Amino acid sequence: PTTPAVLGASTYNFTGNLSMGSTGADVTALQNILIKTGDFNISATGYFGSVTKVAVEKYQTENNISATGFVGPLTRAALNKGI
Fold first, then answer.
1. What's 44's DSSP letter?
2. Cα Rg, the chain, nearest whole Å
3. With bands split at pLDDT 50, 70 and 90, how would you rate the model's confidence at 10?
4. Would you tell me how many other CB atoms lie within 10 Å of the CB of residue 40?
5. Which of 15, 22, 32, 42 has the smallest CB count inside 10 Å?
6. How many whole angstroms separate alpha carbon 6 and alpha carbon 82?
C-alpha cells in the first residue's frame, strides 16, 4: 500500500518561540514552510537572520497576525495548522 501524502500542509509541530539568532531544525522547518508559501525565496539554512525575519513578517501579514517577525504562540498555531 502507498503512504498517503499530506499536500500543502505542514506536518511539523512547532513548540518553541523562534526569533533572530535562533538556529536548528525548527528554523529549517520554518524556512521550508515559508518557501512553500512563497514568502522565503532562498534555500533553508537553519539560521534565523534578517531574511527569515522579513519572510515571517510577510507570512504573519498574510495570516492576519501582527507582523513582528517573532514566531510566538499565534504564529506557531498558524504554522502548526499547515496554513
1. -
2. 12
3. very low
4. 21
5. 15
6. 10
Burial class (CB in 10 A: 0-12, 13-18, 19+), 4: exposed
Distance from C-alpha of 62 to C-alpha of 19, rounded to nearest angstrom: 19
The grid cell for 60 is 504573519
Share the mean pLDDT of the chain.
Answer: 89
Give the whole-angstrom CA distance, residue 83 versus residue 81: 6
Question: Would you say 21 and 52 are in contact if contact means Cβ atoms under 8 Å apart?
Answer: no
From the list 18, 72, 70, 75, the residue with the least C-alpha distance to 47 is: 18
Distance CA 83, CA 75 (A): 10
Q: How far apart are CA 35 and CA 56, in angstroms?
A: 11
